[in-house]
Write a structure and sequence with these properties.
- The protein is 39% helix and 27% strand.
- It has helices at residues 9-25, 29-41, 45-64, 91-105, 149-152, 165-180, 198-208, 220-233, and strands spanning 5-8, 74-82, 85-88, 113-115, 119-121, 129-135, 140-147, 156-160, 188-196, 249-259, 264-271, 278-281.
- Helix 1 (9-25) runs parallel beside helix 4.
- The longest helix has 20 residues, at 45-64.
- It is globular, with a radius of gyration of 19 Å.
């Protein structure tokens, strides 16, 4: 037990609270850089003007210390917990208390309802949607991905057949973006999951959104597919906020895992131009 490091759950609460506020007020540098780069490449005047307005929104949010978007999202939390770390206290309650505090102190909109059918706002944006992984070491890495539902509602999953092949995957992704149209506040960022099972493929798609959009898949095959899909999506002409143009998508990230011989699950988690995330290691 001498090699076990201990951390108090209160430290997790404090960290989550700060991450909730940071993620909602400050766009990650890679997404902001992609928006800036898109303006330089966009030769449709109305599209370029729209992108500049999105940039202006970021500047005003920073200057006034207010959320980038009114939909401050569901608090999706990814936790990588070291095997040699002991958390003194209730981990999930510590995370939820951090969300409560962060959304209150940051004056962030509370959007979570207690029951999916009967509704009823919980009043504090909890519960958080937590994904945990055990990893080597004695640290804990916490990442928050506040997910607005204008884009989340446009996400889809398909249980394709192996015979559908790569072209089937491409067709499904492009169809998803076409069907979404202007609804997810484009330019979008896409997280794509391939493989696993019905539940795991949607997890992969969400996990893909955590990766900086400037960071390609480590496998050259999937890195090339990310680039191909980005090119094809931007040929659709949806454009920023659906007004037309070359910039429908800022980035595509693919995550994969093994699957059953009889299947080829694919999921697309659509995210808007405000693809927010923030991380800390404790």
């Amino acid at each position: 037990m001498s090699n076990i490091r201990e951390i108090d759950a209160a430290e997790i609460t404090k960290a989550v609270s700060q991450l909730c506020i940071k993620a909602n007020l400050q766009l990650p540098p890679d997404v902001e850089d992609a928006l800036i780069d898109a303006v330089k490449k966009e030769d449709f005047p109305s599209a370029a003007d729209t992108l500049r307005l999105l940039q202006k929104n970021l500047e005003l949010a920073a200057a006034r210390n207010i959320p980038i978007c009114q939909d401050t999202g569901a608090a999706c939390i990814f936790a990588e917990i070291g095997q040699d770390l002991h958390i003194k206290g209730d981990f999930e309650e510590a995370v939820n208390e951090g969300v409560r505090k962060g959304y209150k102190d940051g004056f962030l909109r509370k959007s979570i309802v207690q029951d999916p059918v009967r509704r009823g706002n919980t009043g504090d944006n909890t519960p958080a949607f937590i994904t945990t992984h055990l990893v080597k070491g004695d640290k804990i890495k916490l990442t928050i991905l506040p997910k607005g539902f204008g884009s989340e509602n446009m996400s889809r999953v398909a249980m394709l057949k192996p015979s559908d092949g790569l072209e089937g995957i491409k067709a499904f992704v492009l169809e998803t973006v076409k069907l979404a149209g202007p609804n997810p506040c484009p330019p979008v960022v896409l997280g794509i999951g391939i493989g696993g099972t019905f539940d795991k493929v949607t997890y992969l798609a969400k996990k893909a959104l955590v990766r900086p959009i400037c960071q390609k898949n480590a496998d050259p095959f999937y890195a090339e597919l990310e680039g191909e899909l980005l090119t094809e999506i931007n040929k659709l002409g949806t454009g920023p906020q659906g007004f037309g143009g070359r910039t429908t998508c800022l980035g595509v990230a693919i995550e994969v895992m093994p699957t059953h011989v009889a299947g080829m699950p694919v999921a697309v988690n659509v995210s808007c131009h405000v693809t927010r995330r923030a991380s800390v290691v404790l």
